[in-house]
């Protein structure tokens, strides 16, 4: 699947150039269970392709990524973490738009948003094609999820 490879490449590029972290692909899935003690950044896609791109970070990984991204110590889930996670989703969304638009498709992106909680589900009620890529940061794993309407 072409988009999966490009999503992996885009995520690794963003993390090495912007977050200053080297990450590796751990596994590729089509489902994940409930998210626990996590923060999710998401961006909606509308136009010829409809769907959502989401990044799911456990709190410990979110704080480590934010610390690296902002070059400061972050020890709690605060506004900085929400901003950093939203910005990562935004950068990935921009890359996804480029990936899908190479074939001349028009796509608009929503503003990034974040949700966090001790336990929540993230799922679509539509018929979607779902790709979930788990990455290892060395301090834990996170997931990049791409849900596109069929």
TrEMBL record:
<dbReference type="InterPro" id="IPR038756">
    <property type="entry name" value="CheX-like"/>
</dbReference>
<protein>
    <submittedName>
        <fullName>Chemotaxis protein CheX</fullName>
    </submittedName>
</protein>
<dbReference type="InterPro" id="IPR028051">
    <property type="entry name" value="CheX-like_dom"/>
</dbReference>
<feature type="domain" description="Chemotaxis phosphatase CheX-like">
    <location>
        <begin position="39"/>
        <end position="135"/>
    </location>
</feature>
<dbReference type="InterPro" id="IPR028976">
    <property type="entry name" value="CheC-like_sf"/>
</dbReference>
<dbReference type="Pfam" id="PF13690">
    <property type="entry name" value="CheX"/>
</dbReference>
<keyword id="KW-0145">Chemotaxis</keyword>
